[in-house]
Amino acid sequence: MNPIVGWSLAVLAVAIGYARFGWKGVLLAVTMVVFWLLLQFGRALRTMRDAAARPVGAIDNAVMLHAQLRPGMRLLQILPLAGSLGEKVADDPETFVWTDGGGDRVRVELRRGRCTAVRLERAAGAP
């Protein structure tokens, strides 16, 4: 979800809560916003925990991962697709590499937390 839309909905919920129920409505709206933030935080932690359970930079199939990636994706959207943390190879732009058992590699460049470029690098001798 777009952060501007999310925070706009949160402010709208607080305003409606105040208009309809006074301070009790504000309390309910703030409770709902905090619950939503806790759900997002838990989702991020679960994604990181699952990705950390596998070897760094290892994936099952580089071609399949490459087919699922697209520019604009966030790292937390990429990690469940890859199933592991990528091997960081550069800082500017932030670049991660995942390698499969056949030697094929997927190189993902991130700027400001979003994917800007995805490149499949085939192993030598691959068709």
Describe this structure in words.
The structure is a single chain. This protein has 127 residues and is α+β, with helices and mostly antiparallel strands. Helices cover 50% and strands 20% of the residues. It has 2 domains: 3-51; 56-121, Beta-lactamase Inhibitory Protein, Chain:B, domain 1, CATH 3.30.1450. The chain contains 4 helices and 4 strands. It has a 4-stranded antiparallel β-sheet. A hairpin with a 5-residue loop joins strand 2 and strand 3 (105-111).
Summarize this, please?
This protein has 127 residues and is an alpha+beta fold. 50% of the residues lie in helices and 20% in strands.
List its traits.
single chain; 127 residues; alpha+beta; Beta-lactamase Inhibitory Protein, Chain:B, domain 1; 4-stranded antiparallel sheet; 4 helices; 4 strands; 50% helix; elongated
Tally the helices.
4
In terms of DSSP E residues, the strand content is 15-25%
Order of helices and strands: HHHHEEEE
Poorly predicted regions: none
